[in-house]
Amino acid sequence: MDFVSKHIDMEWKQECDLPVLQEIAVSEPFRFKTSTRERGKVWEEITKRLNENKVFRNRLGSKRAVRDRYPLLAKKYKQKMTEEAKDDRRSPELTETDKLLEQIIKMLEESDSEGGEISQQVKLNKENERKKAEEMRYHSM
């Protein structure tokens, strides 16, 4: 069974969302910069652990299925919160899934504002390399 058919076979149900969000909250893939190997490895580990879960029964295929599910859940959550904020009579009833989404969204916003741990280290390393190169040029003159 190839990736496409495996990806299509996975039908997302509400009962699947909670384990996905729990894994994302614990693994914190957002602490690494987007499109890096480190972040990709975290998504792979999340997918591997979820495939071992009886709810998924090894039907997830690649990390893309999990990685693409989060933005969709976050979008639905934000829409729900916007609608409930407009309707003053209703008080928002947060499910465990909603609470996890709120936590993950905050984590993502914090990592975006910080630039991620890895990018900070990369910036420092590049700055140190630049200073060393300038010193070497200065001494060679």
TrEMBL record:
It comes from the Eukaryota. Residues 111-141 are annotated as: Disordered. Residues 124-141 have a biased composition (Basic and acidic residues). This is MADF domain-containing protein.
